[in-house]
Amino acid sequence: TVKVAMTDFSFANEIVEYIRMDDVEVATHCWPGAEGKYADRFACVDAYPIPHLALRHSGGQVEISAKISDHVNHHALSLGDLLSAYVDIQCVGGLSNDDGQ
Question: If phi over 0 gives left and psi between -120 and 50 gives alpha, with beta otherwise, what is residue 76?
């Protein structure tokens, strides 16, 4: 799950253009639809499955990147950030070896 702070997303052209996990786009054109509600978070990605083989080959690490449109330009957070997100990855079960055990 990836939830973004609602900084400056009140107009339809103020969007999160993409969110990627390990260079795979998991969300595009996410529009939270509000601005200035820093404590509120909007889920651009919810319950996205990450294949266990991908985790095994990456040493259990996932790289997450995102890009906002140039129109997101107001209501920065205290450090001047226009994009802030919480990421929640839940692991259910264990990893099996290559022969399925």
Answer: beta
| CB-based contact 1:30 (threshold 8 Å) | no
* Beta strand ranges found along the chain (DSSP E): 2-8, 16-21, 24-30, 35-45, 64-68, 85-87
pTM of the model: 0.80
| Pairing assessment for the beta strands 35-45 and 2-8 based on DSSP bridges | antiparallel
Residues belonging to the chain: 101
94 pLDDT exceeds 90? no
Query: How does pLDDT run across 1-20, given as a tens digit for each residue?
Result: 999 999 999 999 999 999 99
CA distance 68 to 62: 20
